[in-house]
Amino acid sequence: MSVTTPAGFRAAGMAAGLKASGGPDLAIVINDGPTRTGAAVFTSNRAQANPIRWSRQALTHSDGEVRAIVLNSGGANCFTGQFGYETSALTASETAVLLGTEAATIQVCSTGLIGEGGEAFRTAILTALPLLVEAASPEGGLAAANAILTTDTHAKTTSYTSPQGWSIGGMAKGAGMLAPGLATMLVVLTTDAALTAGECDHALRAATAVTFDRLDSDGAMSTNDQVTLLASGASGVTPKEGDFEAALADVCSDLALQLLGDAEGASHNIAITVSGAASVADAVEVGRSIARNNLFKTAIFGNDPNWGRVLAAIGTTRAAFDPDNVDVTINGVRVCSKGGPDRPRGLVDLTPREVSLDINLFTGGESATIWTNDLTHDYVHENSAYSS
Amino acid sequence: MSVTTPAGFRAAGMAAGLKASGGPDLAIVINDGPTRTGAAVFTSNRAQANPIRWSRQALTHSDGEVRAIVLNSGGANCFTGQFGYETSALTASETAVLLGTEAATIQVCSTGLIGEGGEAFRTAILTALPLLVEAASPEGGLAAANAILTTDTHAKTTSYTSPQGWSIGGMAKGAGMLAPGLATMLVVLTTDAALTAGECDHALRAATAVTFDRLDSDGAMSTNDQVTLLASGASGVTPKEGDFEAALADVCSDLALQLLGDAEGASHNIAITVSGAASVADAVEVGRSIARNNLFKTAIFGNDPNWGRVLAAIGTTRAAFDPDNVDVTINGVRVCSKGGPDRPRGLVDLTPREVSLDINLFTGGESATIWTNDLTHDYVHENSAYSS
Asked: Using CA atoms, how far apart are residues A352 and A330, in angstroms rounded to an integer?
């Protein structure tokens, strides 16, 4: 179960010398067709890394044709100036030469420390590329997944096989900086279903909107996020209408929850479900405001069902709500009803890793779930020491 | 140097039994005139505590006349329903009877845990009020300042005396949840200058806009914040135009920096100055986005000048800027110039508690400073254990 589960794909991962640890840091996923349609969504951060700048324009120029995607850890190649942009462009053009195609059909992703991406970085990647392409095989999915990790503790992969005979594979990295609009999250999805580039784009946007976009581990939005879908058509099957979209959303949800489970230093996975909202936008805004509230997040770390902090967070939003008519339920215990204390907070058991926080706004019929983590000593430790 | 420094004021603080610790938890500041003008600014959180609801309408009904302000720690009286509102109203009316005035001239503030404010809370306050008023004296400023503390490690007071003969005194509490729009921050300012209620309101709004409103310790906005100014006119002096406004802003700045210095678990005070901005609003938005970025805040805790996280935070704003033309200077060392690496990050010494982060956006001539803290193990510890 990886990006090479669907037919028509080869992948590889290797150590190119980008990471001081000597660990694997360069990956490729190659689409051998027969079709090579693709789609991608990019970080909405206005400070965008050089690989994002490259990949966005390349996808436009190729009209949605994607032959391969090259990904590196060990350096974000962000705020590295014109030299850094040329490194992303050279990575694409060298890969294109090796595969006998156009540079515009090569997507490039990087992750690691911002500001890293100088001469040594470029040389290491360009030197390794021929070996990487040579190594690519239908068994290389897991090696690729391992080569894109940074502070992740393990590789994240998934797959789905349809009764119709087509399948979807995926890999993801990201263990911090997860936030709306995507966040240092690199995801590659592959399928052997027969899809046009437009169908890929439509399905990818629909799936990410309700999965990765609703993951908000620490509110910090990355400069390097990219989620890419590659379709080979190798199964020869065109999915029934709606089937592919539904399966892709499931695959994305699976990877999103794997990312959440491996978020830096987290000790709880928190599903914040806002129901009774006047609109989905209201539900999402309320969920995010809670997910980003450090006081709520530290309370959950301390196994403290401090529902006052939930209401204080809701109060900072523009969502339709009446502070005197809000219910808050934590792990099944309604601790606040009609904006006042309900059942004793001592009844709430917060020792399990999984936490459900359910808010009812009583202003409509819409709902949304936002996933986040608690704020822990380990989060502070990992992120205070990251670049040193 | 306290709220009783200006002539015409009495104050007191006492233990009313609200805090389990038995520490002082109830305070009063009484304006003996001859004038009793006042003004207040309240939290912009839409979830507002009962004392905020009371005080806001009382100030409107009294046309800016404020005879006294009663403040308690040991319970926020927020999300405590109609009973809680009546407790605030009863606190005001009982105080009014004791002082021979109208309830609408009594401001009420509470701080502590949300959801706390039941029968025992009300009884404790109402029982203590006669003793509190009896104890009020021109020497009671420090006792009042001590009685409003929660997780603060020490009382915050200040004063200023004008060459013209009028003075300003102040006290503040707040050691967490400091955020824009004010946040569990209770501040009382007194003056014996002769001012109308309109002049008080104008000066208070101008001063808080550039001081308390630019303090963003942890991005969490409280339900209970209030900053109140009381003017007695006891000096008989009407300040020269502009003098009072300037002095009040200085006094507020002094208290704001005292709050910052005592923020929960912080190990660095960070002054984020954004210059070269197209507007003050842009400068404030950029400053806040950095101040609220947990990755930046943990990096400073780790003495790590990780400027990439600064640029990633700027990228999430709507401010006018060009990612390829931004300078970032940390403690005097320009580590990023024109959106790329400049001087080595190793030159930055982050061991002092005071940190200056200077951003130049090169898009205009406006600037603003936002004050924040780092995100530390102690912050997580204090806030994970607060209500348990």
From this structure: 12
Residues 6 or more apart from B218 whose CB is under 8 A from it?
Answer: A294, A295, B176, B177, B178, B179, B263, B264, B373, B375, B379
Give the integer Cα–Cα distance in Å for B387 and A88: 50
Per residue in A61-105, pLDDT (tens digit) is: 999 999 999 999 999 999 888 999 999 999 999 999 999 999 999
Chain A partners within 8 Å of B307 (Cβ): 114-115
Active site residue A184: yes
Nearest-neighbour CA in chain B from A203: distance (Å): 26
Q: What is the mean pLDDT of residues B145-169?
A: 93
Please give the DSSP secondary-structure letter assigned to residue B178: -
Q: Is the Cβ pair A293, B220 closer than 8 Å? A: yes
- Find chain B residues with C-beta within 8 A of A293's C-beta: 219-220
| Beta-sheet strands, E only, within chain B | 9-14, 26-31, 37-42, 68-72, 106-110, 156-161, 167-173, 186-191, 226-231, 269-277, 327-330, 333-337, 340-341, 354-360, 366-373
Q: Which residues contact B321 (CB under 8 A, 6 or more apart)?
A: A46, B282, B286, B314, B361, B362, B363
B45 contacts in A (CB within 8 Å)? 312, 315-316
Single-letter amino acid code for the residue at A203: A
Among the listed residues B43, B105, B151, B184, the single catalytic one is B184
**From residue B310, how far is each of A83, A181, B363 by CA, in Å?**
21, 18, 17
Q: Please name which of A114, A13, A113 lies closest in space to residue A69, comparing C-alpha atoms.
A: A13
CA–CA separation, A171 and A226 (whole Å): 12
Task: Give me the interface pTM, i.e. the ipTM.
Answer: 0.75
Cα B117 from Cα B123, distance rounded (Å): 10
> Lowest mean pLDDT: which of A127-131, A164-168, A289-293, A356-360?
A289-293
Q: What is the pLDDT of residue A178?
A: 44
* Separation CA B36–CA B28 (nearest Å): 15
pTM score: 0.80
Q: Which of A37, A87, A111, A184 is catalytic?
A: A184
What is residue B99's three-state secondary structure?
helix
Determine the Cα–Cα distance for residues A241 and A238; give it in Å rounded to an integer: 9
Gap from B222 CA to chain A (nearest CA, Å): 6
Question: B339 and A115 in contact (C-beta within 8 Å)?
Answer: no
Q: Which of A262, A261, A286 is nearest to A273 (CA)?
A: A286
Q: What percentage of chain B exceeds 70 in pLDDT?
A: 95
Choose the mutation target among A52, A222, A288, A298 for the interface with B, i.e. most B CBs under 10 Å.
Answer: A298
According to DSSP, residue A137 is labeled B
